[in-house]
Amino acid sequence: MQNILLTGGAGYIGSHIAVELINAGYFPVIIDNLANSSEKSVERVGKITGVTPKFYRGDCRDEKLLDKIFVEAQISCVIHLAGLKAVGESVEKPLEYYDNNLNATIALCRSMKKAGVKNFIFSSSATVYNSKNPMPLSEDSVTGGCTNPYGWTKYMIEQILSGVQKANPDWSVTLLRYFNPVGAHKSGLIGENPRGIPNNLMPFITQVATGKREKLNIFGNDYPTKDGTCIRDYIHVLDLAKGHVKAIEYTLNHNGVEVFNLGTGQGYSVLDMVEAFQKANNIKLPYTFAPRRAGDLTECYSTPAKANKILGWKAEETLETMCADSWNWQRQNPNGYEE
Ligand code: NAD
Ligand code: UD1
Q1: Is the shortest distance between the CB of 296 and ligand 2 below 6 Å?
Q2: pTM reported for the whole predicted model
Q3: Is the Cβ atom of 186 under 6 angstroms away from ligand 2?
C-alpha cells in the first residue's frame, strides 16, 4: 500500500481526499496544526472507511518534524493543502499569510529533497487567474494580477514549485486549480466547518437554514448576468477529492509541471444556488439583496476539458446533491465538530 502525505489533511477538502484515498487503496498520512480544523475529522474518516489515517499534529514550517515524518513513513506522493485561505483576513494580515503559506511550501520542498520524495500535488485556486480573462477559464488563461495576499500566495507557490521542478527534472509537480468546492461526504460525518461568520456562500446558506444566521445577504443584484447575481463554478467536494486520486496516478507516472482546472464547467448564479438549496431540501431560505462585495468578479467558471481528457476525470455530482449533502452535514452537525 502506498502512503500519501496530506498536509492540511484535517481540513475540509483534505478529510474528503483522505476518504477517497483509502477507497482507492492508498494510506493517508496527515500533518495539520489544527489552525482551522479539528482532529475529529480524522477520527470520522476512520469511522467512514474503517481505516484511520496516521495523524501528526504540527506545523508544515517545522522542517524537523517533516524530516521525521518522511523517515517514519515511506511517502510516494505529497498533496499540499496546508494553508490559510480567508481572502479578507489575508488583506488584514498579509505577513501571516505570506509566512504561513510560502514558508510551509519551502520547508516541505526542502524536506522532500532530503528524503528523495519527488511527487508533489498542490492545492491551487482559480483565484490565480487574471480578472480580465474571458470565460471559461482554461489552464492557458492569463494568471497574476491577484487582488489579495491569499491569491498572491497561491500564485507565488505555483512559481516556486515550477522553479523547483526545473532545477530537479526528475520531480513531478501537479498544480490543481480548484473552483468553488461545496457539499460534504454522503454520510454527513465530515464537511466544511468554518470558524466564526462564514465568508463563503454555501456555509452561510446552511447556517441560515439551521437558524444560526437570520438571513442570507446576496452581495449585488446588478451584475450583467441573467438575474443580476454573480456566476461561479461550484464543484462537489467528493468530485474534487476523486480528482486528486486521478492526479496521483498521473503525477506518479510523469515528470514535469502540469496544471489542471478542477471544476464542472457549469456556471450557476447566487440565486440559482438559493433556489436549488430550497428545492433540494424543502427549506425556505430568507434572503435580501445587499451591496456588492469588494473584489467579487461577475463570473468565474472553468473549462475542465484538460482534466477530463488527460486525467480521465469528470465531475459527476449535481447542484441538487451539492445542496442536499451540504445540508445533511450541517443538519447533523449544527456546530461543526464542536459538541
Ligand atoms: P481548511 O482550512 O479546511 O484546510 C486547510 C488546513 O491546513 C487546515 O486544517 C489548517 O489547520 C491547516 N494548516 C494551515 N496552515 C498550516 C500549517 N502551517 N501547518 C500545518 N497545517 C496547516 O481549507 P480547505 O477548504 O480544506 O482548503 C484546503 C486547501 O485548498 C487550501 O490550501 C486552500 O487554499 C485550497 N483551496 C480551497 C478552496 C475552497 O474554497 N475551500 C478553493 C481553492 C483552493
Ligand atoms: C472566494 C474568494 C476566492 C476563493 C473562493 C473559494 C473572495 C473575493 N474570493 O471566492 O479567492 O478562491 O472564495 O474559497 O472572497 N455571496 C453572497 N453572500 C454571502 C457569501 C457569498 O452573496 O454571504 C456570493 C458572492 O458575492 C459570490 C458567490 O456568493 O458571488 C460565491 O462567494 P464565495 O463562496 O465567497 O466564493 P468566491 O467569491 O467565488
Answers
A1: yes
A2: 0.98
A3: no
